C-alpha cells in the first residue's frame, strides 16, 4: 500500500500482491493529496487518480496547489489513456441541468466552491460523475456525516 498522510487524512491504493505483481509500475504519490496508478491491460492504459481534495475551510494556498497539481497530473496523461478518478472531492452535486453531460439527475446536495471546480474540470476533460447516474436510495449515496450538524453528504465520487 502506498500512502501519504496530511493532518490525519490519507490518499492511498490498496492492491493485492497478486495484482501488483503484474503492474509495470506501482502507484505514484504525486503529493499528499494525489496518487496516480497506471495499469496496463493489453494495449490499453488507464490512469487512476485518487484525490483527497482540500476542505472548504482549507487555506487558499492549499487549494491552489491542489488545483495546480491536479492540472499537471491531467496534462501528463496521454490522450489515449482512460482516466478514472476515485476519491474524496469534498463536494456535493446539485443542478444536473446546468452540468448536463457531466452529472446526471441523481446527484444530491448543494453546490459549493469545490463543486464548481470539480464540475468545471470534468467538463473541460469530458469526464462524467458516474455515481450520479444511478438511482439509489439516499442512504447508499452518502459517505460522510458532518460532525456538528450531523447531516449526511456524498463526498466521494467515481469519475470516468
Automatic annotation (TrEMBL):
InterPro entries attached to this UniProt entry: Endo/exonu/phosph_ase_sf (IPR036691), Swc5/CFDP1/2 (IPR027124)
PANTHER family referenced in this protein's UniProt entry, alphabetically: BUCENTAUR RELATED (PTHR23227), ENDONUCLEASE_EXONUCLEASE_PHOSPHATASE DOMAIN-CONTAINING PROTEIN (PTHR23227:SF84)
Protein name: Endonuclease/exonuclease/phosphatase domain-containing protein
Organism encoding this protein: Alligator mississippiensis (American alligator)
Lineage: Eukaryota, Metazoa, Chordata, Craniata, Vertebrata
